[in-house]
Design goal:
globular, 12 strands, single chain, 344 residues, alpha+beta, 9 helices
Length: 344
């Protein structure tokens, strides 16, 4: 049951991404030939008007296939026949819809359990925070140039910038203070610590507060995704540590099962909400990367076209995207192989 729920969640996120492309294509008068969920051979399909709606064999990914998207077409409703700005809106709509989805589910989460206020509950002896005069009850509002709204953002910053000296801005009794902390390595935890601790305390707000914090929740997951990519590119993370669809579905299913067994269905529901926010924001970011075959790669070509005021040869662009698709499938194969290997 948990795996089925995970697959449904994953499918909904993909469908919403493709709906962004689909709705903007229709709004711009572009002919959509097929709207599909999954990859590979078609196992079910139905023709409605000019568009075929189908489900593919592999339950990962999806597609909104438009007339003249990757080849020349004489149809006046072809993708290539529309203005560069119309095409840019269609391409950008997919990732943007993922951010909208993440925001909506973040709002539901905030309404249910609130946010983790970045207020420290204790100061450890012989660490930088104590030496700087920080106290329990101080609320951290900035680390270096990064504004802080959740305590998780502090933990994330220390994870992605281990051992880095930081300038901390915090509030105490309505007054703002700034200090510099040099983290100290802790042998027991294997981490660099600033010297303050946090006990889980979530604060519920009103509708306006929840809307604001929903934006910061999405920002948090975008930041986490970008920093993870930075660590991957710089070699701080290896490809073997990545999780693909198989690993994600398994982890989501395990989280759901453990939550149901230990704390009940409500906690399991909240955990699934967290997964939806994470995956939707992650999919939005990944698709905006300026790589061939991804939405970001297509946007790069369209931006170049807008600057040159001249279309790029569609055959050449199609060839670049074809190479990108091949490399993307190779990466997916490697990641999926690692996911399957981890199962055993």
């Amino acid at each position: 049951m948990s795996i089925i729920i995970a697959l449904i969640v994953f499918s909904i996120i993909v469908i919403f991404h493709e709906l962004g492309h689909f709705w903007l294509a229709k709004a711009n008068g572009i002919k959509v030939n097929e709207f599909s969920l999954g990859l590979g051979p078609t196992i079910w399909g139905i023709q409605k008007g000019e568009t075929k709606y189908s489900i593919k064999l592999l339950p990962f990914g999806g597609a909104c296939m438009m007339e003249g998207e990757d080849e020349e077409s004489s149809d006046e409703r072809a993708f290539g026949a529309k203005s560069v700005w119309a095409r840019m809106s269609v391409v950008f709509a997919g990732p943007f819809f993922n951010f909208i989805m993440a925001f909506v589910f973040a709002f539901v989460l905030m309404c249910c359990i609130g946010y983790d206020k970045p207020e420290i509950t204790d100061v450890l002896p012989n660490y930088a925070a104590e030496e700087a005069g920080m106290q329990a009850g101080d609320t951290i509002v900035k680390i270096n140039h990064m504004s802080i709204h959740f305590y998780r953002e502090i933990s994330a910053y220390s994870t992605f910038h281990p051992g880095e000296t930081v300038e901390i801005t915090y509030l105490r009794d309505g007054e703002e203070y700034t200090t510099t902390l040099v983290p100290k390595y802790d042998e027991e935890s294997g981490r660099y610590l600033y010297g303050f601790t946090y006990m889980s305390q979530r604060v519920k707000g009103n509708v306006l507060t929840n809307l604001k914090n929903s934006f910061y929740e999405v920002r948090y997951w975008i930041y986490t995704t970008l920093q993870s990519l930075r660590m991957l590119v710089t070699g701080q993370l290896s490809v073997n540590e990545l999780s693909g669809p198989v690993g994600i579905v398994k982890n989501m299913g395990d989280t759901y099962t453990q939550a149901v067994e230990s704390e009940g269905y409500y906690t399991a529901f909240l955990n699934i909400l967290n997964w939806v926010i994470l995956l939707s924001a992650n999919l939005g970011v990944m698709n905006l990367l300026p790589l061939p075959a991804l939405d970001g790669g297509r946007l790069v070509f369209l931006i170049v076209e807008a600057i040159r005021r001249k279309k790029i040869d569609p055959n050449k662009e199609g060839f670049v995207h074809l190479i990108g698709i091949a490399l993307l499938f190779l990466l997916m194969f490697v990641v999926m192989f690692n996911d399957i290997r981890k199962l055993f």
